[in-house]
Amino acid sequence: MEQVSIAPLVVFRIIFGGMMLGSIIRFWLNGWIEDLYIKPVFFFTYYGFEWVKPLGETGTYLIFIVMALSALMVMIGFKYRLSSIAFFLTFTYVELIDKTNYLNHYYFISIVAFLMIFLPAGRNFSLDVYFDQQKKLTHIPRVFIFTIQLQLGIVYFFAGVAKLNYDWLFEAQPLRIWLQPHTDLPVLGYFMDKIWIAYFFSWFGAIYDLSIPFFLSFKKTRGYAYFFVIAFHVLTRVLFQIGMFPYIMILATLIFFSESFHVKLLGYISKPFIRSKELIHSEGRAFHFGSLFKKMFLTFIAIHFFIQIILPFRYVLYPGKLFWTEQGFRFSWRVMLMEKAGKAFFYVTDKKTGRVGETMMDNDLTPNQEKMMSTQPDFILQYAHHLEKKYKAMGMVDPKITVDCYVTLNGSGSRPYINKYVDLTKIKDGFHHKWWILPFEESAN
Questions:
Q1: Upper half-sphere CA count for residue 222 (Cβ side, 13 Å)
Q2: Which pLDDT band, with edges at 50, 70 and 90, does 283 fall under?
Q3: What is the Cα–Cα distance from 4 to 7, expressed in whole angstroms?
Q4: Which pairing describes strands 285-286 and 137-141: parallel, antiparallel, or unpaired?
Q5: Fewest CB within 10 A of the end CB: N or C in the chain?
Q6: pLDDT of 179-210, one tens digit each?
Q7: Could you tell me if 385 and 394 are in contact, meaning their C-beta atoms sit under 8 angstroms apart?
Q8: Considering Cα of 360, then 364, then 370, then 373, what sign does the dihedral take?
Q9: Is 386 helix (H, G, I), strand (E, B) or coil?
């Protein structure tokens, strides 16, 4: 198996650990730990992960401290394997607490953190090597670097595939809605309310996502491609509030550059303390697979990427409009593809007395949770079961929970979303089709 310099993997480790540490500090300073994981009294769990619970104020801050320390340790390469495992477990645990906070780039971070556990990214330019020179590697099989490159390529490519839909390409939605409020921007603001600019950005975005992994993979086009990576993500950061994701992608895609580029970059980082060429290429050895480990690793990688490739297409197993039903929507790199808003009214019926009353959500949900719940069927079902338990605890023997919900998708007009006659307490969550979602009608009533 072809051996290449370990430098690209080392640089990626430093970037990944550093960006994660910065993101956690930013998250803490903005008060989001308290707002998202301490103040809420109810959390929307993922199906199959109902056992993941919030840890209370002390436990939550403690897990973020462990997460920050493990990110720092990944960056400097101290106890690398242990710190990689700790970061993956803490970060993923926090993300599983409440799916209200789901973002594609959080999913991406969990995947990369998981992959990094199995890669020898701490075997050079690290404290582990400083304390034990026997651990030092100068060269590794190309497959280790290709693993990260392929994961990045999948994110981009499937984000492009997801844009190949009628609303995005032929209605320029939701960009026609999202761009108009930005007319106050310097220079660019003049164009933001022009319909043609929404179409241009829509088509350019699709072409960019579909092609950028391939252009980054070839030396002749890599420099031009990276210019577009920077321009694209800076522009999206200016126009949309999407946190650290643009910066993460700008820096992460450096792994597509040559080995010599990364050696020079390490030289810049280490200057004036040590010459990076000596650090990377001297007094070390190459990584060689044992036959059993090679088979195990390649099998693991094959299974991982097989899942990554088929998971975005699971939506074809469900009837209806994907953006309407959202069945098979998450974990498929569908990034910022729709403008969806709704309002849900829950009603409880006491079967014993026949009395019907509307239930208020203010005491159960934060404004953001209520907003997210009102447009996503699995949230609605989960909240209905929460209400069932709540009213049973108040003495109601067999409460019936129904919802009258109205949703608008990409400016199409508000329309009924859920069958308001269905008792949601009698429905169990799962991967089966949610038949109680009303079909999307092309023209709203």
A1: 12
A2: low
A3: 9
A4: parallel
A5: C
A6: 999 999 988 899 999 999 999 999 999 999 99
A7: no
A8: negative
A9: helix
